[in-house]
Amino acid sequence: MSKQSTKSSKKAAVIDQKPTILITNDDGITAPGIAALVEAAKPFGRVVVVAPDAPQSGMGHAITIGKPLRLNQVHVFGDVEAYQCSGTPVDCVKIAVDKVLHKKPDFCFSGINHGSNSSINIIYSGTMSAAMEAAIEGICAVGFSYEDYSFEADFSLSQQVVSEVLHKLTTKQLPQKGLYNVNIPKVAISKFKGIKVCRQANAKWNENFVERVDPTGKKYFWLTGEFQNRDKGKDTDVWALQHGYASMVPVQYDLTDYDLYKKIKS
Amino acid sequence: MSKQSTKSSKKAAVIDQKPTILITNDDGITAPGIAALVEAAKPFGRVVVVAPDAPQSGMGHAITIGKPLRLNQVHVFGDVEAYQCSGTPVDCVKIAVDKVLHKKPDFCFSGINHGSNSSINIIYSGTMSAAMEAAIEGICAVGFSYEDYSFEADFSLSQQVVSEVLHKLTTKQLPQKGLYNVNIPKVAISKFKGIKVCRQANAKWNENFVERVDPTGKKYFWLTGEFQNRDKGKDTDVWALQHGYASMVPVQYDLTDYDLYKKIKS
After folding, report:
1. Global ipTM
2. Residue A251 lies in a domain
3. What is the pLDDT of residues B44-67, one digit of tens each?
4. How far is residue A106's CA from residue A45's CA, in Å, rounded to a whole number?
5. Does A31 reside within a domain?
């Protein structure tokens, strides 16, 4: 073996030791939020993107079972390996593990979502469902969401939060056996107060469908709603966001209601 | 007021006291499972159906936010008031409350699903997500699922279980402030052992995408997988179903991981 090839092998080994980071989202692969996440994550490992080829907001934990999926490599993040998938955010994680990486990545980061996924929004959110799917697979996962729905949102503060969380995870200051829902407030960086570990607020949406009539005279309905926080606690994600903190909720997916379980059992 | 109209008013008042029961599903309004649920629920109150106009399996907690919804009355359950909606199972619950019932029903029952929704399947399931949406609204809700995927499934045992659960709920032997995931085993009625209150088993799916090539030479993928139960407990829903019981898991939707929360906080 030549000196040159020994050097190359060593270099390859070092590269292989870098963590593999899978990135996905629910706003689609061309959304500014995922580009911001890719940039912030690059210093922490080898980034591979597998994200929906179109917006998939509000898809929750949907999977595609009645039709096949398409998967195509794209070049939208410079030299970062990236694929667009015709499925849901959860499909993206599944196909990334089985058909792109052929192994489980060390981390899965989802987002940065255009819009908050605090409190009950977690269960409607494709962003958080993708992260949860990774966690079910045993992969350390974080969903990042920013309290600004616009496509022109400024992700500077969000990227600062991503860097801080990724630093804490890769240096094991935060448990890697975890799933986290991180929401970033829409405040000036100078007014940002830091990251606060929270519980999920008890909130809901009050629906109000807008009724309209199409050009052929048939009725149709648009889902709209008003967010209602029923939770006065100062330890919730909603409280944190309202007071200039980024919220970090550790998340799990055993939905058993153990209080009710014990009550019925007895 | 004539005797006749007084009698009518009294009769109307009695009818109004019957609980209002909203029924939905994720297999679509023409699936045999929802017809079986409607029949089993009719003795317990005034049944109104709002269900997807097409199969929506695996839709999880998806909602429709990028396009409008259609809602049309149909006559597929005899004299039972029924509507088909172009949205997801969760959309059906939302639009039923806001645009069909104009109030919250007393109960929401979802199913009977063609196929089990035990353990981790709860988070992929449109059936259970519809029930959960109702619970978030404060409505007592149950999702029913039968361990037989076929359209020709025999729902006799499932209807027996539905009747037992609805009897317990309407007579308050079971707390009405609750959300329940009920799964019915595929066993002969003679071998059925009864309903067992359980916790959600710790299980997952191991994905295995089938890769094919379309007539134009482009690759496509079908999601398939193998169910893997990692949980040896005899108190789980998977164990109950394997041993001839119907499982009943009380369910909640605060996804905070309180163990990890305390660990990080300290």
Report:
1. 0.91
2. yes
3. 999 999 999 999 888 889 999 889
4. 9
5. yes
